[in-house]
Design brief:
With about 325 residues, this protein is of the alpha/beta class. The strands form 4 sheets. It has a 5-stranded mixed sheet, sandwiched between helices. Strands 8-14-13-11-12 form a 5-stranded mixed sheet, with helices on both faces. Helix 6 packs parallel to helix 7.
Length: about 325
């Protein structure tokens, strides 16, 4: 028996990011407020991380709420009607309600219902992963316009007495609208994982452990030196590959927007990539902290506010984190 020929969809030849939206936690938390439980100092935190303050959300404000606020700004600035958005992806590791997804709730709140909607867990590479998925789905015909959000309330999953990661983390959400383009606006990704290093950063217990009384509420932990070495050496190579995959050179870049993990990592990246002085480097970590999947769109949103002349230029973005996972691509800034 001969099977009937199936119809497969095709979509736009190219895609681009139309706009950014942002929502940071409503509280500004200085280092001094955190140093007691970890027996540290403001000077130590600034020297090791470059963080002066971080934004965190008040009790009652969830990741889904910040995701909604960021999404509304991105949609308004994009010129795309909410009902035209047929794909919503939220990158997050801090949805405290395992199901339903943040994405489905946000899609309804912003008027994109019944868009396809799902959450993606790729930690600090989540936004890069989600952009890659949205780009591919639009070009395949699986979607026409996508809303991509990185949203985290990491203060819900942090132990204030933990010296390995607690003082790094902030809360916030960044969103973009992606759609068809007359020119290539999102280059090929360089993405992947190394599960052999899964223990380097992640939760210290499972929900089953918590339910059974064998552990306290699960919180994030990391092996700082392991993660630092991996980020500095291996991720610099990934960033170089992403530039090559885009068919450009570092001299063609207008901006470099790495995951806001640590100022020392960002500085080392810039050295290894031999970025020219004309490239503007995102350093949002100083006042926002590490917001995992939200860090790249939040940093980009701030960069475009402070440097509107970057509009239309090329930016290299790279995310990396728990998994261990990584994702990088060159984009055209809206």
């Amino acid at each position: 028996m001969t099977a009937p020929t199936l119809t497969q969809s095709t979509g736009a030849q190219y895609t681009r990011i139309y706009s950014y939206g942002a929502a940071r936690g409503d509280l500004v938390v200085p280092n001094q407020d955190l140093v007691g439980p970890i027996d540290s100092s403001d000077e130590w935190i600034q020297q090791r991380t470059g963080i002066i303050t971080r934004t965190r959300a008040s009790v009652g404000i969830l990741a889904v709420d910040m995701a909604t606020d960021a999404a509304r700004e991105a949609i308004e600035k994009s010129g795309v009607a909410p009902e035209q958005i047929d794909l919503v992806i939220v990158a997050t590791i801090s949805n405290v309600q395992q199901t339903p997804s943040i994405a489905a709730v946000v899609a309804d709140r912003v008027g994109a219902n019944p868009a396809a909607a799902y959450d993606a867990n790729a930690a600090c590479a989540g936004f890069s992963y989600a952009v890659t998925q949205a780009d591919a789905l639009i070009r395949s015909g699986g979607a026409h316009y996508a809303l991509v959000i990185g949203a985290e309330k990491l203060s819900d999953v942090v132990d204030p007495t933990d010296r390995s990661i607690s003082f790094l983390l902030g809360d916030g959400a960044g969103a973009v609208v992606i759609g068809p383009s007359e020119f290539p606006g999102i280059a090929a990704p360089v993405w992947g994982s190394d599960g052999s290093k899964a223990a380097a950063v992640g939760m210290n217990a499972t929900l089953v452990d918590y339910r059974d009384g064998d552990a306290a509420w699960p919180t994030l932990r990391q092996e700082g030196q392991t993660v630092f070495r991996w980020a500095v050496w291996d991720m610099a190579k990934v960033a170089k590959r992403a530039i090559e995959a885009a068919g450009i050179t570092p001299d063609d870049l207008s901006a470099f927007i790495p995951h806001q993990a640590n100022m020392r990592i960002i500085d080392e990246f810039a050295k290894q990539l031999k970025l020219p002085e004309t490239v503007v480097i995102a350093r949002d970590i100083a006042t926002t902290g590490n917001t995992s999947a939200a860090s790249i769109p939040l940093a980009t949103h701030r960069l475009l506010e402070e440097h509107p002349e970057l509009s239309g230029g090329l930016a290299l973005q790279i995310g990396f984190g728990a998994g261990l996972v990584f994702g990088a691509q060159v984009i055209v800034l809206p």
